[in-house]
Amino acid sequence: MNNSEILKQIIESRKSTYPKDYTGEEISQEILDEILSSAQFAPNHKKTKPWRFRIFRGEEKQQLAKEIQKIYKETTPEHLFLEKKYLDFAEKIAKTDTVVTISVNFSGLLPEWEEIAATSMAVQNMYLTCTANQIGCYWSSHTVINHLGEFLNLEENQRCLGFFYLGKI
């Protein structure tokens, strides 16, 4: 198979895979590094590399789950609050080997949409690298992300765009 055929196969087989389908096996640091490294090759105008990723594994991942639950409880009106959704946050993260928060850094040099587009392309590179390594993944952007700035130590010109869940399949 030539490179073009291999690339086409990877692109066509890329899909979102959810934590309920993860095996629970640990992703090696080497593969995780490869996934994150692939993001660095995304096109970005003026080489601003606006994507910011923070990796959560082990105890840090549990802290993230608690923070998400806290935010959901604090920001959801009582009549809209769902206990199942509250519990699902922790369960989904528990079944996930690695959670990566996806944030964008607005440089001020470019329109915001260009920085978001570049960040999205970086995530697409991660999706494709996951596919090539038989790692399940998906990008989630629940409204709790709008309240994670302090927890993630985001600066005024940065915004969280979602979570990237990864697990062996």
UniProtKB/TrEMBL annotation:
Give residue ranges for domain Nitroreductase: 11-168
Q: Tell me which cofactor or cofactors this protein depends on.
A: FMN
- Per its record, what are the GO molecular function terms? oxidoreductase activity
Task: Give any Pfam family that matches.
Answer: Nitroreductase
Q: InterPro entries of this UniProt entry?
A: NAD(P)H_nitroreductase (IPR052530), Nitroreductase (IPR029479), Nitroreductase-like (IPR000415), YdjA-like (IPR026021)
Q: Which UniProt keywords apply?
A: Flavoprotein, FMN, NAD, NADP, Oxidoreductase
Please, which domain of life does this record's source organism belong to? Bacteria
Q: Does the keyword Magnesium apply?
A: no
Magnesium among the record's keywords?
A: no
The entry's family comment says: Belongs to the nitroreductase family.
Q: What is this protein called?
A: Nitroreductase family protein
This protein's species is Cloacibacterium normanense
